[in-house]
């Protein structure tokens, strides 16, 4: 059982969570409203591992080295028969770092400005060719990760080590760059974070990757007879850190942002999808302090409550947890992206949750929707 609670980053421990909620579990709520069952072939692939939430890999603490593998897995987006579920991708290609669990998004690779990372793509047990491409790093030609222009492709049965200098501080993206249109849509993406020298962390810091999916891709790769063309892509699933509401609120499997009154909160957004997503925080105005690895001068910062994140962009925002303690949504304001199929609400929605209200009936009810039993 994990000790991590909330979105990847520096939230609270499971012990703190249980203390804040009074140590009580929540009953799982079930229903059958507008079900969106994408799991038609999952039974045939029941032997596949199930993805876990993305973890933070402190690469500096590993001597600057990390190994990534692609692991064919099942990916539950929202596994319950409530709020438009269940939604499950019967097959994804999840990234696994070293001996950790495979995840979608992939692990957050975190290092410090001035260091080099040696990232080994281990495809010895793979069944598809892959590469690794890192945004936000000035690197040598052969380390760019594009097979068309470098001639380097990691075929099944092979390994390849990329040298990735951490010379552009900020929050970045990495992904497979072989047959990119399909491999990203199969889950091969993650966050690359370079802390600047002398980095001062906020009281709470969270990472969130948003993504739009056409569910026909993982279904087709799982052997289902579906008609799909990348020229006719039609996203029907919208996720934050791989989950859709209400699973996004699950304290261990999802990505709630748990805060205390007075906290300074730093939130790193990454868009790994193919559409722009205007991300909105309820009752909290924030400043955009960093974009695509570029620090925004203080004179150019202003308070707002929405930021439109284009494909592959990275936005870092900061706000004070100065609202009336409560539960406040954070969501894409393309409202059809905040749905599970025809059911609203769902999709690309999470929440800012004050610890002070985690012992209330409404929070317990939300945990029931999320499937958290304590």
Automatic annotation (TrEMBL):
InterPro entries: Cu-oxidase-like_N, Cu-oxidase_C, Cu-oxidase_fam, Cupredoxin, TAT_signal. Keywords: Copper, Metal-binding, Oxidoreductase. One of its GO terms (molecular function) is oxidoreductase activity. Residues 103-197, 234-341 form the Plastocyanin-like domain. Gene3D superfamilies: Cupredoxins - blue copper proteins. This is Multicopper oxidase domain-containing protein. It comes from Natronosalvus rutilus.
């Amino acid at each position: 059982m994990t000790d991590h609670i909330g979105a990847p980053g520096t939230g609270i421990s499971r012990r703190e969570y249980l203390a804040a909620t009074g140590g009580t579990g929540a009953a799982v709520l079930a229903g059958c409203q507008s079900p969106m069952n994408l799991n038609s072939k999952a039974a045939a692939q029941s032997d596949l591992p199930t993805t876990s939430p993305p973890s933070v890999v402190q690469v500096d603490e590993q001597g600057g080295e990390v190994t990534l593998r692609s692991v064919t897995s099942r990916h539950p987006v929202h596994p319950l028969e409530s709020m438009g579920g269940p939604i499950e991708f019967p097959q994804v290609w999840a990234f696994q770092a070293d001996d950790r669990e495979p995840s979608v998004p992939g692990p957050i690779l975190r290092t410090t400005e001035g260091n080099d990372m040696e990232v080994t793509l281990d495809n010895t047990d793979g069944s598809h060719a892959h590469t690794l491409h890192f945004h936000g790093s000035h690197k040598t030609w052969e380390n760019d990760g594009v097979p068309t222009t470098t001639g380097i492709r990691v075929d099944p049965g092979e390994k390849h080590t990329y040298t990735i200098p951490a010379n552009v501080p900020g929050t970045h993206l990495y992904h497979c760059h072989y047959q990119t249109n399909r491999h990203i849509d199969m889950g091969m993406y993650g966050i690359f974070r370079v802390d600047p020298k002398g980095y001062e962390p906020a009281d709470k810091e969270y990472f969130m990757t948003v993504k739009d999916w056409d569910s026909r891709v993982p279904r087709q790769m799982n052997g289902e007879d579906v008609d799909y063309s990348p020229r006719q892509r039609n996203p029907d699933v919208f996720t934050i850190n791989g989950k859709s509401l209400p699973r996004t609120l699950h304290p261990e499997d999802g990505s709630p942002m748990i805060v205390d009154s007075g906290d300074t909160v730093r939130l790193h957004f990454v868009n790994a999808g193919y559409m722009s997503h205007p991300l909105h925080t309820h009752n909290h105005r924030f400043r955009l302090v960093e974009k695509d690895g570029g620090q925004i001068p203080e004179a150019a910062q202003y308070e707002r409550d929405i930021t439109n994140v284009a494909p592959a962009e990275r936005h870092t925002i900061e706000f004070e947890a100065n609202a009336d303690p409560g539960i406040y949504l954070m969501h894409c304001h393309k409202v059809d992206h905040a749905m599970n199929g025809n059911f609203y609400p769902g999709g690309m929605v999470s929440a800012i949750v004050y610890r002070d209200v985690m012992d209330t009936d409404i929070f317990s009810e939300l945990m029931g929707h999320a499937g958290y039993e304590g």
